[in-house]
């Protein structure tokens, strides 16, 4: 069975690399190449202009080429993972994988370069000759001690960052974890005794970095395959190991482990026996980082000493020491300031930034990626998870700042806050478009009541709202449940202290709420008893009553349940002749910009009058995002070629719009492709009134609008902001069950803007 399981995993891995096309990388053009004019600009004769400009000013290479965002991942395959010296060719899948991680986590382009050269000086010569091509060099999987020589030569000769990830990347993540482990254990770098197994590049680099953090060399005991590194040893020694040689008669791990505060393993499986852990100091820190089998298994270590603080290199145990926490982000910061090197200051800044992230409340995105895992700072959570989006903002900013302070930045960043915003845009697709909405929301303090307050997404959104806006969240839910979930999720906010709560089971305002609801509904079949029951069980109705009574400015509901069910109670309580829902608008964020779609939920077969209201509402809301609306009325027919149905209703809506004095572009009726393709539209109707691609699609049937919205979301990678409920004077918004915590934060910002700010 085990063999079959291993074969299945092996086949799955090979299929992943082979299908649908071999390898994990491809190259794509960033400029159009559709005609002779494009060709003339991309190559001869236009390309000569860029070359001349760079010849005149070498710094312009960052302006006219991709060099400033291009990293080389270089290896000779002499020390690949746990596979050893498998050669350059066999190392290529690993280097491709490294390049993919650069792109995924930091949007850095990479070329993987596998070089058939084992002489460290010749290898360094080859790498140095590549400097005109790349903005930085990432050395990878080169055996020790050759890697030390290669890095030293390259760093001395090259004026771009050279970073050996096996050394410094490992050291940075280890030290970030160690920094937090010592906080948990209440110990100091200056006081601890460290025993380390493994005298390779990673192990030596970790010890050197720990020394920079305050650990005394006299307190570091290094062992390798030959035993303890001691003064006078001649077998298997080099200058890097000699720096940690101890003057002692001890020779074995058993002899030196007594009273050790930290074990650092970068060696092999089962090196650290559980019995030895008992000889260590109180609350021992055990970093067993050998892969795939650590020096000691965590369960064995904890059985020996129950309060041991443990990290491994494996993803199936807490506290995975993974270089991906470091290298994409330290390169991002270095490239953005065009650093000439990655120095100690930048590495220390990276350590502190990674460690700090783990000590703050976990992001909603990371929590969603690691459901079921404890992500609250402590023995089981010393460092952040790789998919924590905060890494992409916090670490590059810290690194860039350190580069500037230490004088190695050729292109200093004048405004770090703007730089952070730019990084956020790369992480959160909605950040750029939502910025004007958030800026407006910060000016006014609005009370937003969340009907489904016990939902994890709502709780995380509530904390983010308090951190990023001036709004005051109000959550409907049971106090004990809210308290427990905040604590379990590692949130710092607490009900009653940081946000107001409404307890549907026992709230002092219960009588006020049911009587208010009954007054609204008493002639619509709602009896006092029924009103009482609804105010005990229906959180959407409770939220609507709160807005009606002026105890909240806006409600957000819909994280579960059917849209129109929620809409029923919103209309019942908040509906008025001048306050009625007339459309649901979704902003779909795509690679080439936003596309707005309406009406997705309110009117199944809208009348011309309802279509007109959707157009007017959409234009108003689109401008809130800093976008100039270009609106297409979409239908099955095209400029009158089909009678009746959606086309007829769209044409009649167009007539109504034409009678108004409007300051935005609109036209119809037309097919979706006609709306999005100006050339096609001009060919079909040269006299059409739209300039460029439409960015707002208004449909004459909800099935079409909803279908397009869902297809874009599921198949085109569109990120939705919305649905925005139009016509309700920004008193209520109904989201959908697929919404994320970030989506709720976005909706809160939209809800946090008074109507007077955009009408």
Summarize this structure briefly.
The chain has 759 residues and is an alpha/beta fold.
Task: Walk me through this protein's architecture.
- By secondary structure, this protein is an alpha/beta fold.
- It has six domains: 31-65, no CATH class; 66-160, Malic enzyme, N-terminal domain (Rossmann fold), CATH 3.40.50; 168-321, Rossmann fold; 325-427, Rossmann fold (3-Layer(aba) Sandwich), CATH 3.40.50.720; 436-574, Rossmann fold (3-Layer(aba) Sandwich); 583-727, Rossmann fold.
- The protein contains 31 helices and 21 strands.
- The longest helix has 21 residues, at 165-185.
- The relative contact order is 0.06.
- The mean pLDDT is 92.
Q: Mind telling me the CATH class of the largest domain?
A: Alpha Beta
CATH topology of the largest domain: Rossmann fold
Q: Shape, please?
A: globular
Number of strands: 21
Compute the number of helices: 31
- Terminal CA distance reads 68 Å
Helix and strand content put the structural class at alpha/beta
The major beta sheet can be summarized as: 6 strands, mixed
Note poorly predicted spans: none
What portion of residues belong to β-strands? 5-15%
Keywords for this structure?
Rossmann fold, alpha/beta, globular, six-stranded mixed beta sheet, 759 residues, 31 helices, 6 domains
Topology readout:
Blueprint: H1 2-18, H2 36-42, H3 47-56, H4 61-64, E1 70-75, H5 87-106, E2 109-114, H6 120-128, E3 136-139, H7 146-157, E4 162-164, H8 165-185, E5 194-197, H9 201-212, E6 220-224, E7 227-228, H10 239-242, H11 253-256, E8 262-265, H12 274-277, E9 285-288, H13 298-304, E10 309-312, H14 327-336, H15 344-359, H16 364-369, H17 391-405, H18 416-427, H19 431-441, E11 447-450, H20 456-468, E12 472-476, H21 479-488, E13 500-502, H22 510-521, H23 528-537, H24 539-548, E14 554-557, H25 563-574, E15 583-590, E16 593-598, H26 608-624, E17 630-634, H27 645-658, E18 665-670, H28 672-676, H29 678-684, E19 696-699, H30 702-715, E20 719-726, E21 732-734, H31 741-751
Parallel strand pairs: 1-2, 1-3, 3-4, 5-6, 5-8, 8-9, 9-10, 11-12, 11-14, 12-13, 14-21, 16-19, 17-18, 17-19
Antiparallel strand pairs: 6-7, 15-16, 15-20
């Amino acid at each position: 069975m085990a063999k079959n399981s291993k074969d299945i995993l092996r086949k799955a891995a090979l299929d992943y690399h082979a299908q649908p096309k071999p390898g994990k990388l491809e190259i794509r053009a960033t400029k159009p190449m559709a005609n002779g004019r494009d060709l003339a600009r991309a190559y001869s004769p236009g390309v000569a202009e860029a070359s001349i400009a760079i010849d005149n000013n070498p710094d312009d290479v960052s302006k006219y080429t991709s060099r400033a965002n291009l990293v080389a991942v270089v290896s000779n395959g002499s020390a690949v993972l746990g596979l050893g010296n498998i050669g350059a060719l066999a190392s290529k899948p690993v280097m491709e994988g490294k390049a993919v991680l650069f792109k995924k986590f930091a949007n850095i382009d990479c070329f993987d370069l596998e070089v058939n050269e084992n002489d460290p000086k010749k290898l360094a010569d080859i790498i140095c000759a590549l400097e005109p091509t790349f903005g930085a060099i990432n050395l990878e999987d080169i055996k020790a001690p050759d890697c030390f020589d290669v890095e030293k030569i390259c760093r001395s000769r090259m004026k771009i960052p050279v970073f050996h990830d096996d050394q410094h990347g490992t050291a940075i993540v280890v030290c970030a974890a160690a920094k937090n482990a010592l906080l948990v254990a209440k110990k100091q770098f200056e006081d601890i005794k460290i025993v380390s197994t493994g005298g390779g590049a990673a192990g030596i680099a970790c010890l050197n970095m720990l020394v920079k953090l305050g650990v005394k060399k006299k307190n570091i005991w290094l062992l390798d395959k030959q035993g303890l590194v001691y003064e006078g040893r001649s077998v298997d020694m080099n200058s890097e190991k000699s720096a940690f040689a101890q003057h002692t008669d001890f020779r074995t791990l058993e002899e030196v482990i007594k009273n050790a505060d930290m074990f650092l393993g970068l060696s092999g499986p089962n090196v650290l026996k559980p019995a030895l852990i008992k000889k260590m100091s109180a609350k021992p820190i055990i970093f067993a980082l050998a892969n795939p089998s650590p020096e000691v298994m965590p369960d064995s270590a904890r059985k020996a000493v129950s309060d041991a603080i443990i990290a491994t290199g494996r993803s199936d145990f807490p506290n995975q020491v993974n270089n991906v926490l470091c290298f994409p982000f330290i390169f991002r910061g270095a490239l953005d300031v065009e650093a000439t090197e990655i120095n100690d200051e930048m590495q220390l800044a990276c350590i502190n930034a990674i460690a700090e992230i783990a000590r703050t409340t976990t992001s909603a995105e990371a929590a969603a990626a690691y459901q079921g895992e404890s992500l609250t700072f402590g023995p089981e959570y010393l460092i952040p998870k790789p998919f924590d989006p905060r890494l992409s903002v916090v670490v590059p900013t810290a690194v860039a700042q350190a580069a500037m302070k230490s004088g190695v930045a050729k292109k200093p960043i004048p405004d770090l806050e703007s730089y952070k915003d730019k990084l956020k845009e790369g992480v959160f697709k909605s950040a750029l478009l939502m910025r004007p909405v958030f800026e407006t929301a910060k000016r006014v303090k609005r009370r937003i009541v969340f009907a489904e307050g016990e939902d994890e997404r709502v709780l995380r959104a509530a904390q983010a709202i308090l951190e990023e806006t001036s709004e005051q969240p109000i959550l409907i839910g049971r106090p004990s449940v809210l308290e427990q979930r905040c604590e379990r999720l590692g949130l710092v906010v607490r009900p009653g202290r940081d946000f107001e709560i409404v307890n549907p089971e026992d709230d002092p305002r219960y009588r006020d709420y049911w009587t208010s609801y009954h007054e609204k509904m008493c002639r619509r079949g709602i009896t006092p008893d029924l009103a009482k029951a609804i105010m005990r069980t229906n959180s959407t109705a409770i939220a609507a009553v709160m807005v009606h009574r002026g105890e909240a400015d806006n409600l957000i509901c819909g994280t579960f349940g059917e849209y129109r069910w929620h809409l029923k109670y919103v209309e019942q309580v908040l509906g008025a002749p001048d306050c009625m829902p007339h459309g649901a608008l979704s902003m779909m964020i795509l690679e080439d910009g936003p596309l707005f779609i309406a009406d997705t939920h309110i009117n199944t077969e809208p009348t011309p009058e309802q279509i007109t209201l959707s157009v007017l509402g959409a234009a108003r809301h689109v401008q809130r995002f800093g976008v100039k609306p270009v609106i297409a009325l979409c239908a099955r027919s095209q400029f009158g070629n089909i009678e009746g149905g959606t086309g007829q209703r769209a044409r009649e809506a167009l007539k109504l719009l034409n009678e108004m004095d409007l300051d935005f572009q609109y036209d119809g009726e037309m097919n979706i492709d006609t709306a999005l393709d100006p050339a096609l539209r001009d060919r079909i109707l040269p006299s059409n009134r739209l300039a460029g691609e439409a960015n707002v699609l208004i449909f004459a049937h909800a099935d079409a609008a909803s279908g397009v919205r869902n297809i874009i979301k599921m198949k085109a990678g569109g990120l939705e902001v919305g649905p925005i409920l139009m016509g309700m004077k920004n008193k209520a918004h109904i989201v959908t069950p697929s919404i994320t915590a970030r989506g709720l934060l976005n909706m809160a910002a939209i809800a946090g803007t008074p109507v007077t700010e955009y009408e």
